[in-house]
Design goal:
single chain, 111 residues, mainly alpha, 5 helices, elongated
């Protein structure tokens, strides 16, 4: 397997920026990994916070211990600024992942 393909696969299957690190392009790799890391942190921390809120509601008795009621709470879309932040974080993660794949392949092909 040649270098550009290996770099693109590393960026695609491991994490954005890993292909750049493989090609010894540390600054672009760090930027991509940092952007993706911040976006992933926002998404995971928001999901954990929502899970804790739902758990607290169940423990206080505000929500029945019923799969349908819990599923409704889990599937409800966040409103306002939280929804916008999640959309921006999701978009940033996807864009950094796609840029990481394409750019690591491009950089790998450059002699």
């Amino acid at each position: 397997m040649n270098k550009p393909v290996k770099a693109a696969l590393l960026s695609a299957l491991v994490f954005p920026g890993v292909g750049h690190f493989f090609l010894k392009k540390y600054i672009p790799g760090g930027i991509l990994a940092g952007t993706a890391g911040v976006a992933l942190y926002i998404l995971v921390s928001t999901a954990v916070a929502r899970a804790v809120q739902i758990t607290d509601k169940i423990q206080r008795g505000e929500v029945e211990l019923d799969t349908a009621a819990i599923a409704e709470l889990v599937s409800s879309q966040p409103a306002g600024s939280e929804g916008q932040i999640l959309s921006i974080a999701t978009t940033a993660l996807l864009i950094s992942w796609v840029i990481g794949i394409i750019d690591s392949y491009r950089v790998g092909r450059t002699p």
